[in-house]
Structure formats: structure tokens, C-alpha cells
Amino acid sequence: MAILEAPYLQLITDILEKGQQKGDRTGTGTKSLFGYQMRFDLSQGFPLLTTKKVAFGLVKSELLWFLRGDTNIRFLLQHKNHIWDEWAFKKWVSSNEYTGPDMTDFGRKSLIDTAFADEYNKQKKIFCERILTDDDFCEKYGDLGDVYGAQWRHWKTRDGQVIDQIQNVIDGIKNTPDSRRLIVSAWNPEDVPNSALPPCHTLFQFYVVDGKLSCQLYQRSADVFLGVPFNIASYALLTHLIAHETGLQVGEFVHTLGDAHIYNNHFEQVKKQLTRTPKNSPKLWLNPEKKSIFDFEMSDIKVENYDPAPAIKAPVAV
């Protein structure tokens, strides 16, 4: 196996050295570069970072959640995945039914006020427990609307039709592998004004040549320290899964970034990561008995020989 994370380490180095200081929606501030591309040869290993531990279980459960067409966080919570909690929690504490302590601007305030952070964590724990145990509450406050699962699996047209983009692209790879239309889009201009978080991964395209499947993702907004390591692993896994179903080998994952940024409160973490020496990338194992990507469960997907440095924590900007 080879060391595959060099393009990512170069990205964070380039942002620190050449990035432009910019304001942002969250009020945190970033250093940013526009229009950046990384390439990962998936035949040489699986591009899971080794200079800090990336929780592959979270990558798996989130991708399987997308592929199910699910938009409710209950599935994620059942698999101890909390990476989408804040957006559902915001929906709850902004509602007329919420009667607890004021949670206005909880993302920022929880970082600077210890007492508030304790109360926030208490309220979010109560919220998550209700999502898991109260069906009515879960249906009302656990659903995130037209996020990736809906866009990928049941895109709704104006005339009431439903498009399964993932199934369509799998059929296209099998039947017309030279097509230049092997595309899945998540960006719907009609939905953007009302979305809690308009899709960051706006479009991805597949390419077949010499029996290998490659994928290119265009990501409009990229949280380089926290989000991008997950994004790399997620789309590399998606490429493997679709190659598995279509009888192809894996080629490249090409990651094209629009606004690639490091938040101002992530600089020290990034510098710490850059002091570490990368190791050989792990290998991905998929259960050969599963034929359809929609049949995969958590236990059907594993990484082997993964020996990362410890995780590095950083706050999420909401």
C-alpha cells in the first residue's frame, strides 16, 4: 500500500501559506483558497488520513444513510453518529414547542461560555434521546428535509415525478459506460433559499476507462480540517461500492474544491497535524456476497491495516 494523503497535506499547507482571510456565514472567519484539486489513486489504497484518526464508522454510517435515501437523523443516532445533530437541534430549539433555556447562537456560545456549553450539551442529549424513543417527535424534528439522501435517491420534479439519481447512474455505468452524463447533482436552485444547509457536495461525475471507475466531486464549500477528510473517504467509498456493483476496478477519486477554507479556530490543530509523519494508507474490504450497494450494512464494509495517529479535536462551525 502507498501513502495517499500527500495531496491533502499539501492543501492545508497551501491554505496556511497562501490563503486569503475572509469572513463567513458562521462569524468564525477563515483562511481560504478558491479552485483547488486533489487526485487519489484508489488502486493504491484507501485514502483515509493517517496523520490524525478519521472515524471510519461515521463515514460508513453517513454514506449508508445517504444511500438509503434517508433524511432523518434517527438512523445516524442508532449508529452513534452525531455529525448532523446540530442542524436538527437548531430546528427544535427554534420552534414554539421548545421551552428550555435560550439556545440562540448555540454553536458559537458553546465555544466561549463553559456554563452555556454544559447546558447546551444537556439539552442536546435530551433531544437525541427523544429522537431515538419518541416517534412523533422524531418525525417532526429529526428530519432535515431535502438533504443528500433525498437529492440522491428521490429528487422531486415539478410535475410530481421522482428521480433516483444513484440507480440511474449505476444503470448508466452498466449500459452506457462511455456516457458523459454519469452525473448526480445535489444542487437545486429552487430549494437553496429554504435549506438549513444548502449542499456542499454539489455534483459528482463518474468516468469509465480500461475497466476502471473514477469519480470527480465538485464541492462548493470545504471545511478542510474537519469536513474534507470525511468527504475524501466518503466519496472514495462510494466509488468502491459502485465499482463493486458494476463489475469494475477502481480508478481515481478527483476532488475539486470551490471555497477551500480553514476556520480561524482550527489553525493550531492544522499545524499540529502537519508535524506528524504520514503512514501507508489502509486497504478497503467489501463483503463479496453483497451485490447491490443498497444491500450493504455497516458490517459489510471494513478498513484493514489502519494505524493512524490520534484524533485532533476542533469545534464545528454551525
UniProtKB/TrEMBL annotation:
Gene Ontology MF terms: thymidylate synthase activity
Pfam families: Thymidylat_synt
Role: Catalyzes the reductive methylation of 2'-deoxyuridine-5'-monophosphate (dUMP) to 2'-deoxythymidine-5'-monophosphate (dTMP) while utilizing 5,10-methylenetetrahydrofolate (mTHF) as the methyl donor and reductant in the reaction, yielding dihydrofolate (DHF) as a by-product. This enzymatic reaction provides an intracellular de novo source of dTMP, an essential precursor for DNA biosynthesis.
Top-rank taxon: Bacteria
Keywords assigned: Cytoplasm, Methyltransferase, Nucleotide biosynthesis, Transferase
Domain Thymidylate synthase/dCMP hydroxymethylase: 7-318
A biological process term (GO) from this entry: dTMP biosynthetic process
Similarity-based family: Belongs to the thymidylate synthase family. Bacterial-type ThyA subfamily.
Residues that, per the record, bind dUMP: R25, R180, R181, R220, S221, A222, D223, N231, H261, I262, Y263
Gene expressing this chain: thyA
Active-site positions on this chain: C200
Catalytic activity: dUMP + (6R)-5,10-methylene-5,6,7,8-tetrahydrofolate = 7,8-dihydrofolate + dTMP
EC number: 2.1.1.45
Pathway terms, separated by semicolons: Pyrimidine metabolism; dTTP biosynthesis
Cited InterPro entries: Thymidate_synth/dCMP_Mease, Thymidate_synth/dCMP_Mease_dom, Thymidate_synth/dCMP_Mease_sf, Thymidylate_synthase, Thymidylate_synthase_AS
Major localization listed first in the record, in broad terms: cytoplasm
Enzyme class: transferase
Protein name: Thymidylate synthase
Subunit structure and binding partners: Homodimer.
Binding site for (6R)-5,10-methylene-5,6,7,8-tetrahydrofolate: D223, A317
HAMAP family found in the cross-reference section: Thymidy_synth_bact
Listed GO CC annotations: cytosol
Subcellular location: Cytoplasm
Organism in which the protein naturally occurs: Liquorilactobacillus cacaonum DSM 21116
